Structure formats: C-alpha cells, structure tokens
Predict the 3D structure of the following.
Amino acid sequence: MKTALVIGNGEYENIAKLKKPINDSRDMKEALESLDFTVFYGEDLEQKEFKRLVREFGQNSVGVEISLFFYAGHGMQYLGRNFLVPVDAEILSEDEIPDSAISLDFIQNRMEDSKAKLNLFFLDSSRDNPFEKNIKSRGGRSANIHRGLANPNMSFTHQSIISFATGPDQIALDNPKERNGVFTKNLLKHISSKGAKIDDVLKKTVKGVIEETNNFQVPWVHQKLYDDFYLNGKGETVSEQSEEPKRDSSVATLSQSRNESEVNRSPKKQILFNLIASLLLVLGYFGYWEIYRYEIYRDFFVDKKTDLMWQKKNREYYTWQEAMRYCENLNLSGYSNWRLPSRDEAKSLMTYFHEWETYEKWSQWFDASKHKRHNDKFVESEISHFVPTWTWTSKKYYKDISSSWIVSFEYGDGGWDNQTNSTFAVCVQDL
C-alpha cells in the first residue's frame, strides 16, 4: 500500500497569492492516484485544517510501503527550522512564526511514527520570505529569517528521501507562462516512468530543472536509502540488486532475494538469523530500540517520542506560582506558549522513577537507595546536561491545593512539595 499527502496553498489572505500551487497539487494528486496511491488532498488550507489533515494522513500510513508528502505554496525558514504557511497566517513579528505556521518537523515526525518502509518529501516552496515587508513595516527585525528553506532535520530512522525545489537559502525561478513550477513540472514528467527506481526519477528531475533554468536553479536532494524502490513497477515496490554477475537482470525481487539467501544459508546460520530478527522485533515492540529520539538545539531540545519541546536547564529558583508565570511569559528563541510540564511529561524523560507521598517516606527511600542513586542514571546521557536537578510540575495535590508535584531528574524520584518553597523550573510546549 502507498499513501500520499498532497497540499497546495495559493489563496493567501494576508500575503501575496500564488497561482501555481493549486495546479501543482492537482496535477500531482492525479499522477499519484494513477500510481495506486491513496491520496489525502487539501488546497488553500487554514492552519487548523492543515494540522488535522497531517494527523489523518499519519494515522492511515502506519506500516505502508511508501509514504509521500508533496507541498506547493509559501514556505520559510526561521532560526534554522522550516515552516509551511497556511492561507490564514498573519505574522507581524518573528516570534509569531512558530505559532502561526506549520513546522516541517511536525510532518516529518508523523511520517516517521508511521514506520513506512520509505518516506518521500517533495517541497516546491523555496521563495522569498513572504512576511518580510510586514515585519519591517512595523519596525520589527527579520535578521533570523532567511530566504528559501533551511537544511532540514536529517535524523531519519527509516529510509527517506527529502527534496527541495532548490538548494537551502536559495529561491526558485517562476515562469508565469507555465502551468506548473519548474521543479513540479519536471517531477511530474518522470514520476510515472515505468520500472524506474525512485532515485533515478529524482536524478532526471534534477537534471531537467538545471537544464531548463540554465544552471540557475539546482534542486536539493538528501536521501537515506539502501533498498531499491519503484513507484511504477510490476507490482513490486521494493527489490534488491542481485550479486550474481551471470544473471541477465540487474534487479531481483525481494521474494527472490529471500529465497536465494535461505538456500545458501547453513542451518546454524539460519537459526542465529531467526533469533536476532526475533530479538530486534521484541525490542522494537517494547520501545527499547530508540534511535535519534532527541534533537538538540541552542536553547531547547525536542523529544520526538512525545512530540514535546523542552527548555534547556534554567538555573533560577521559583515558588510554584512564580514558575507558572515564568513559563507562561517565556519567549525563547522566538517560541512562546510555554508551560510547566505535567507530572507524566516530566517522568517521560526518565529511565527510572520512584514516587513518594511524604517527606518521611522520601527520607527513608533516600537513605536506603543511596548506592543505587549514585550508580544509575535516571535521564538519558544525551540530555542529562540539559535538565535541572529538580523541577516543578503543573500537578496540584487534590487533598491540599497548596502543594504541587516536583520531580528530581538527579535522584529519579518525585513527590509533593509546598508551593511556597523554591526550586528550579523547566518549561515545555507541544510541537
């Protein structure tokens, strides 16, 4: 099974309208449906509908062979992150971008979570910052906003290809006489090629754009690929190259490859192979095999498992009320809408956790577990330097509203504390 999310935004309410994205998206939808993709389609989407369609697409792409995302419309980069612009976006200052636009990370995470064998990303949105005049005309700054798109997040777990209409920090050409953008036009020309590997489709697309624009526009492609994938093959979307030089065909289907390897494998090797495969499946099922869970940035880190963005360590002490106000008013790297984490959100960062209800119980456990506490890590080493020893959470005690739950990342425990006491606070927000 193959799924695709195709979106074209052109009828913008507060910035320049675009004519070609609707043509691009409609033509791409038609081409993908002819290739037996189940297409989730939207055009001129507002932010709420944009996010809803992304979630629906992700939920219906679990375990598919190929998952594809195509977007045509306004896009922009801010602080090194890429954002796609809904038609209702109104951005008057830089710090409004994360709340008003759609982060490309949000879409990548949904596609990664679906565990498709191959994720494809095609973005025909490399244009000048559409809000630059709005921001400058109101005395704002746009030093953190650059033209085109930025280098995207490359921490893929599954096989993936991501392609921009042109290179990072560059803008694409636009011929008003053409129905489609140059990149989409050439992609449409080759995407239905019979029996062509997907990487060959992209090579021909890139070559076509370069020739048509006389080397001015050079599409950007990054891939993590170790299988051969076909969009218009003979019923097979994955195959492996044969290593036997005497065979006429340079490509063998996946089933043929499996049969040949099983014949050549000795019984002992076959048993070992089955054990390793079973172990990896078990580890993956229980969540122990987590690769590239965290993305680290200058002032915050992102937990892709929970889709939460965490502020890096804050060294100030706060009462509970002060901590709540601090997070609500925090503006960090252009991001607002911060809050104190819930108890479960704070615990999600920990590899081990022990709860206590009273100070006396905590003291008993603290003394009894001294050896364990100083020899086990309670937070993954990748983020251990970015979290405080303690943090307030938003959880109030139902028996005593003057107490709230605190969590210790240093000792792997947590419990109730009086809200007038002071401790650290780390803020969080949803992606």
Summary: The first strand starts at residue 2 and ends at 8. The longest helix spans residues 267-285. The chain has three domains: 2-229, 242-285, 298-430.
